[in-house]
Amino acid sequence: MDITYRPYIDPDFEVLIERIHPPRVCIDNDTYRDCTLVKVDSANKHGMLLEIVQVLTDLELVISKSYISSDGGWLMDVFHVTDQQMNKITDESLIQYIQEGICVIRRARPSIGEETRPTLMSIENTALEMTGMDRPGLMSEMSAVLAELGCRVSAAMAWTHKSRAACIIYVEDASNGEPIRDPCRVAQVQAQLENVVEAHHYDNERRSVRWTAPAPGQTHTERRLHQLMAADEDYKTCCSCCGSNDDSDDDDVYGPGRHYKAKKKECYGTHVKIEKCKETGYSIVTVRSRDRPKLLFDTIYTLTDMQYIVFHAAIRSKEFIAVQEYYVKHKSGHPLDSDDEKQLVIQRLIAATERRISHGLRLDICTENRTGLLSDITRVLRENGLSITRAEIGTRGGRAAGTFYVKDTSGQNADPETLETVRREIGSSVVVVNKSLSTASWAASSRTSRSNSTEIQERPRFTLGSLLWSHLERISSNFKPIKS
Asked: Degrees (nearest 5) of the Cα angle 48, 49, 51?
C-alpha cells in the first residue's frame, strides 16, 4: 500500500498571518493635485482584491487609475480616486470609513449607518430573485402581484441585457413590516409570480423565480445580479467588438511591461484580448471599453467569480476610454490555454461590461413611501408606453427614492410630452435626465455640473448605491426638471 505524506497545515495559520500582517491603508492627498491615492498593503487571499474595490465603488468613488500587484501571497494596490464631482477625498469621516472598511474585510464588516451602504441589503428581509425573458410591463405586473398579496417592497434592483432580465426585490409583510416567514404564504406568492413570468415565455425557455428565506447577514445586490444573469447565460450572444480604427490622434497607454496605442477615434464598443506571456506563464487579459462608473468592480468580479487570480494589473481611463490589463492564472495554477476557455472568459467579461450600461432616459424619483408604491410607479410607466431597461429603488422610514431608465416600446427615447405626463401622474419629485450618464458622458457631465453648480444638478445622488438617507430631505427639496 502506497503511503503519501503531506505536511500538516494548522487551519488557524491563515488567521495568524492576518493578525500578524493586517491590511495597511494609506490615504495620500499630497502626491497628486487632482486625485486621492488609496494605497493598500496586506497579506493576500483569493477575492480580497474584489472586496477592496467593492468598498470603494459602494461609496460611489471614481477610480481613474489603478496598479495592482499580488505575487508571493502579498498584495500591494494603488487606486487613483475622486468623488463623483471629480474632487479629491478630503472628508475625514469618509477617509476613516475607507480605512476601516478595507482593514476589516477579513473579519466582520465595519459598523456603519444604513445611509452609506444601501447596496448591502440585509437578507433578514425576504428576497425575490427573478430571471427570464425581458418584455415591457414585466416589473409592473410583478410589483402589482406583490401589492395585491400584501407584500411591501423595501428595495429593488433590476437589469436587462441581451433580451434577458434579472431583478432582486426585497419584501416585507405590509401589515407589520416583518419578514415573510410563513411557508404557505411564501409558496402562494411565488406561485403567482411564476405565473406572471411564464405568461409570455415560449416552451423550454429559461426562466426562474426564487425566494430567499430570511437569514442573518448581508448580501451585495449588484454581485448577486451579476451571478443571476451569468447563470441565465445572457453572455452567450456576446462577442468582442470589431470596430474600425483611426490611426490619427492616438494616445500612449501603458500596462505593466507593455506599451501600445489607444486610438481616440476607435470604436467605443468592448474589446477583449487574451494573450499568453511566455516569460511568466501568466495569461494577459486586456479589456478596452467605454469608461463608466463601477467598471473596475464588474471586471474584477467576473474574473474572481470564474476562479481566476489577478497577480498584476494596470488600469487607466482617459477621455471616455478605459483600458484594463490583467495578468492572471486560474486558481488551479494554469493559464488560459484552450480556445473554449478563452472564448468563455471573453464572453463573460463583455457581458459584465455591458449589463450596467443604461439605455434610455433616466427618471429620478423621490416621494413618500407607501405600500404599492413600486406598483403605482411602474403602472404609470407601462400605461404611457414606457419600458424599463434598468431600475433601482430604496426606502427608509417614510421616504422612498429611485432611478428608472426607460424607453418606449419601440426602443426609442420617450418624447417630452410623455415624460411630462409621467411626472404629473406620479405626483412626486421627479427629475428627467435627457441623456444617460452611465455611459462615457458621465465624467464630462460631472465636470460640467461641478463648474455650473449654481444651475441644475445633473447627477443626483440617490441611486440605490449612493443614496445618503440622512440628507434625503435636503436633496429632494432641490429637485428641478431638466428641460429637453
From this structure: 65
- pLDDT digits 0-9 by tens, 285-321: 999 999 988 999 999 999 999 999 999 999 998 878 9
> Phi and psi at residue 404, in whole multiples of 5°?
-125, 130
| Angle, alpha carbons 7-9-10 (nearest 5°) | 150
Distance CA(404)–CA(381), nearest Å, equals 10
The model's pTM: 0.78
Question: How far apart (Å, rounded) are the C-alpha atoms in residues 156 and 355?
Answer: 16
Task: Read off the pLDDT of residues 69-95 as tens digits, 9 standing for 90 and up.
Answer: 988 788 899 999 999 899 999 999 999
What distance in Å separates the CA atoms of residue 367 and residue 392, rounded to the nearest whole number? 14
Collapsing DSSP states into helix, strand and coil, what is residue 52?
Answer: helix
Confidence label for 67 from pLDDT (cuts 50, 70 and 90) = very high
**Cα separation of 252 and 262, whole Å?**
6
Q: Rounded to whole angstroms, how far apart are CA atoms 401 and 461? A: 10
Region of 8 (left: φ > 0; alpha: ψ -120 to 50; beta: rest) is: beta
State the residue for C-alpha cell 464630462. Answer: 444
The DSSP secondary structure of 236-252, one letter per residue, reads: GG----------SSEEE
